[in-house]
Design goal:
- This protein has 2 domains: 37 residues; 240 residues, Alpha-Beta Barrel (TIM Barrel), CATH 3.20.20.370.
- By secondary structure, it is of the alpha/beta class.
- Helix 2 runs parallel beside helix 8.
- The longest helix is centred in the first third of the chain and has 35 residues.
- The strands form 3 sheets. Strands 3, 4, 5, 8 and 9 form a 5-stranded parallel beta sheet that branches. The protein has a two-stranded antiparallel ribbon with strand order 1-2.
- The relative contact order is 0.17.
- 39% of the residues lie in helices and 12% in strands.
- A hairpin with a 5-residue loop joins strand 1 and strand 2.
């Protein structure tokens, strides 16, 4: 009887140990999943507008296009070197999304290589900066699915010339930061995660000249960042700045030339900086 009781006791304890081990492993896995999972805020089209909003990190994003009809007079990538120099001086990494047109301009090839060599994230902003849908009626598409596919194929060819693989440039900011459900779905079918600037941050308006009714000076655009932080939070925001020299704005009125001030102010608020390369693969 004593031997039987001991056997039963050992058997029960063994089962309890196994159960406890399984539960412990489950909790550990749950903890790992939580640690490495990514939380997104999205707009009505499912495009990401904020990343891990509980973390005090800011995603600096730089887009650019080169307008071939005026040899880059209006849209260009001429802000790229000052932007890279400022990021290097502050020890900050950013995410760059130039169009395929920029890759084909000889004077930008060395700075684009710098983006890669200095550890920034590099993807693209389409190939030819197609306007995907009408401003008058967003549901009205201006391009076909085949046109989008052809454009993206050309964009990918430029990125691959710099030795990048699709896995390295699988995030994309749609051209003009403007799209509808149709175009967003086509881009996702092509294997892209889509992101757009966080609503309420106005730095992406840095292309408008003083003659525009919606013009806002670079200094006011910078002040908008601090106002947004006071009223909401900069945690997880996607902050877009154009790395372009628009002809209707003076050098003092170019937001990217205020980048050092922006970085210092964001850091003073207790935030750090991340790029799209820091987002774990899902």
């Amino acid at each position: 009887m004593i031997k039987s009781a001991n056997s039963n006791y050992i058997s029960i304890m063994r089962r309890l140990y196994i159960t406890f081990s399984v539960l412990l492993a489950a909790f550990a896995l749950a903890g790992c999943y939580h640690k490495h999972s990514t939380v997104y805020e999205t707009d009505e089209y499912g495009v990401v507008t904020r990343i891990n909003p509980s973390e005090k990190s800011v995603y600096l994003v730089f887009t650019a296009h080169f307008s071939t009809n005026d040899n880059g007079a209006f849209e260009n990538f001429d802000g790229i070197v000052p932007v890279l120099d400022t990021l290097a001086s502050r020890g900050v990494k950013g995410s760059f999304f130039p169009t395929g047109n920029c890759f084909r301009v000889e004077r930008y090839k060395e700075p684009i290589q710098r983006i890669i060599d200095e550890g920034h994230y590099l993807s693209a902003h389409s190939n030819h900066h197609l306007l995907l849908c009408s401003y008058a009626n967003r549901d009205s598409s201006l391009v076909t699915a085949d046109s989008i596919r052809t454009d993206i194929k050309g964009m990918e060819a430029e990125l691959r010339q710099f030795g990048l693989t699709k896995e390295q440039f699988n995030w994309m900011i749609p051209p003009y930061e403007y799209y509808n459900q149709f175009s967003a779905d086509v881009l996702r079918e092509l294997g892209y995660n889509l992101a757009n600037p966080t609503e309420g941050l106005e730095t992406s308006m840095d292309w408008m000249g003083p003659e525009s009714p919606d013009y806002c000076s670079a200094q006011n655009l910078v002040e908008n960042i601090w106002k947004y932080d006071n009223e909401h939070t900069l945690s997880g925001v996607i902050l877009l700045i154009h790395a372009m020299n628009y002809p209707d704005r003076t050098d003092a009125d170019r937001t990217y030339l205020h980048l050092g001030e922006i970085i210092d102010g964001i850091r003073a608020g207790g935030y750090d900086f991340k790029t799209f390369a820091d987002i774990p693969k899902q």
